[in-house]
Amino acid sequence: MPTPVTLISGDGIGPSISSATVRLLEAAGADITWDAQYAGMAGVTRYGDPIPDETLDSIKRTRVALKGPLETPVGEGFRSINVALRKTFELYANVRPAHTIAKGGRYDNIDLVLIRENTEGLYIGNEHYIKIGSDPRAAAESIALITRAGSERIVRYAFDYAEKHGRKKVTLVHKANILKYSQGLFLDVGRMVARQYSTIEFQEVIVDAMAMNLVLHPERYDVIVTTNLFGDILSDLISGLVGGLGLAPGANIGLGGAIFEAVHGTAPDIAGKGIANPSALMLAACMMLEYLTDEPRAQRIRKALEETVREGKTVTRDLGGTATTDQFTDAIIARL
Ligand code: NAI
Question: From the CB of 267, is ligand 1 less than 6 Å away?
Fold first, then answer.
């Protein structure tokens, strides 16, 4: 039986990189039926809603989605798409691998996975202004909520991920030296979970030191787990270590399913020109195949993509070539 997957092509370069990705998966023989749905500006145009109920219903049915980049409409009354998806499907784990594909950058052997808590911390949206005297916005307060249950499930996710992917070490990143309650709870729970995984090394590092270490000695790290805001910042840092967002996939995984995506945006400056690099969405699709337990096919696609990028002959402009999205995709398919 083919696996049903919700496909949100997205805005800007989204439709072009999505159709390239679907073509690649079909060429690789992936047994998927796509349920095409709309979100972002495409959702507004069709249903007047950037995250239409039809799209949410589809993900509720399939529990797996591949999502192109979305443009969040500016203006009152529009929900944040990512927040709505995370809340609806309790996508508590954001998984961002950073892996060197083409040598010649600052580092040649980076292979990191950052696991970010996606639902708590400063992102719960509990903020308010404080009036002092006649100034209604004299101060502002944001609440960073850390729960024992939320910390436990994300650290456990990181250790399970390490075990499943044959990785050796989990580094927990925190700021418990200053934020003794919220970050302290995260660290305490992390230590407790770590004791249950005797085969995986556990390490704890304070976030500011981690930022420096990741730039100086990224090879020292393997799987990294951290709270929401630190994860947001460090995940882009590690993408920068391997050549930017053009090759960076991401996954949001949780109780209600999983959504796989390219980390970059809609690239309005090159939309419609047929020159976008589809690699990030293709690598996200490989993560999706692994999630669907089709690891061999994921590996085969990843290998063909990496070889094509490394050879450098038929690559898109952002990778230093002149190929169109379709020519690059054809070159990958030819290597499958
Ligand atoms: P962006 O990632 O779309 O573009 C930044 C630069 O990178 C541009 O020069 C673009 O041409 C280039 N670029 C990005 N992806 C590329 C690709 N696959 N191939 C070749 N070049 C690529 O970021 P920007 O300009 O800040 O955002 C544009 C729009 O995308 C905004 O509406 C933003 O809200 C949205 N966005 C959506 C995201 C999502 O849905 N996950 C994530 C980030 C931004």
Answer: yes
